[in-house]
Amino acid sequence: MVTFCTIIWCPALAWCTICCTTFMMWLSTSVWVPSMISVALLVSASSAGGRGRPLLRGGAGIRTGIIGKKHVGPETVYPFDFAYTEENGSVLQVGRNITRIKLLVQKFLQTQDDRPFFLYVAFHDPHRCGHSQPQYGAFCEKFGNGESGMGRIPDWTPQIYDPQDVQVPYFVPDTPAARADLAAQYTTIGRMDQGIGLVLQELRGAGVLNDTLVIFTSDNGVPFPSGRTNLYWPGTAEPLLVSSPEHPQRWGQASEAYVSLLDLTPTILDWFSIPYPSYAIFGLKTVQLTGRSLLPALEAEPLWTTVFGSQSHHEVTMSYPMRSVYHQNFHLVHNLHFKMPFPVDQDFYVSPTFQDLLNRSTAGRPTGWYKDLHRYYYRERWELYDRGRDPRETQNLAADPRYAQVLGLLQTQLAKWQWETHDPWVCAPDGVLEEKLSPQCRPLHNEL
């Protein structure tokens, strides 16, 4: 639907964001927060004939809108001129009802306002809902499908997938329960896909599609084992399509450059020709953008081969800080709480896939999985993978003396990034950060 002027990143990485709240905070500020799923459609439009000149925040001359999942607050800190989210309505209606979403986009575009606009459309469809609205299925795949008690979404033609026909990713157990879970998700993704088509039709109908930068992405990895809340590949690899009417030289091409969702805010500011404001948090260090604009990559393939990742907690009871760096083919993960079992979030815990995995594991039955629960829960402090030879990340090379130089290089890169971004976990787990002392990392003598 957007291939007329699109560049596709293979892969785009949600480094620094594998959960939803943090993604929205970064999108609004581009400030790295040592953390917190929807797939989001970002729409940023120029005024007719050129890019907007005037800040997305307070008096920048940009009209802002959000439809769907917001998942961040308070509203006074993250305000929008036009907002229909879970704060003032049903998340099912604003995040999954594609007819409702279409009409809200239409309402936004029909507002008499000559300012350039930024519209954030956050579909909730990739999320699980078995923990909150189980009557609609594990992924709310039944919501609005026309069956008894499910309601009907007029613009949606449901696509039903046979669990026996779905392709099972390597990180998902190949069992009937997991196959049915995947099939349910694919149905909801199909609803979102049709919804994106409706949004683009509204842009076309309003006469602004050819003046609009469209960005399609997701805010974290797939909600299956090794996915969301993990820093493994399935938890950080994201879809990213960028459609720019001003960069025809790369239309229809795929990019292999490593990019981060932290790059979205600099990209949008660059599109509007808006400088990032100079300010400090709590009167201390001046805030610096930690991403870079993607617009140059729409002109020529850049040599971007390094990205960083962060996860600290998802739910309040899920503290498990991790940091990672991806450089060329190598991927390094630092598990700071490596002596603790990896936590599992509530919505994934009740999922058909995980419940089946638990039942099979406790009964000693085959799981059809590439790992076992012990390896999933209990991880080494350092995990080093050569994804060129081991794309499934199953062979940890951190203790292999043949890779000592690679390990040291990536550890140095990761520490440098943590210091640059003022990561409070930079000295963990065997030290504590004391910024007024020298050296700032003070030993804990905790036998780690």
Automatic annotation (TrEMBL):
GO BP terms in the entry: glycosaminoglycan catabolic process; heparan sulfate proteoglycan catabolic process
Gene3D superfamilies the UniProt entry points to: Alkaline Phosphatase, subunit A
Domain of life of the native organism: Eukaryota
InterPro entries hit by this protein: Alkaline_phosphatase_core_sf, SGSH_C, Sulfatase_N
Pfam family of the protein (one): SGSH_C
Cofactor(s) annotated in UniProt: Ca(2+)
Gene Ontology molecular functions: N-sulfoglucosamine sulfohydrolase activity
This protein's UniProt keywords: Hydrolase
SUPFAM superfamilies reported in the protein's UniProt record: Alkaline phosphatase-like (SSF53649)
Assigned protein family: Belongs to the sulfatase family.
The protein's name: N-sulphoglucosamine sulphohydrolase
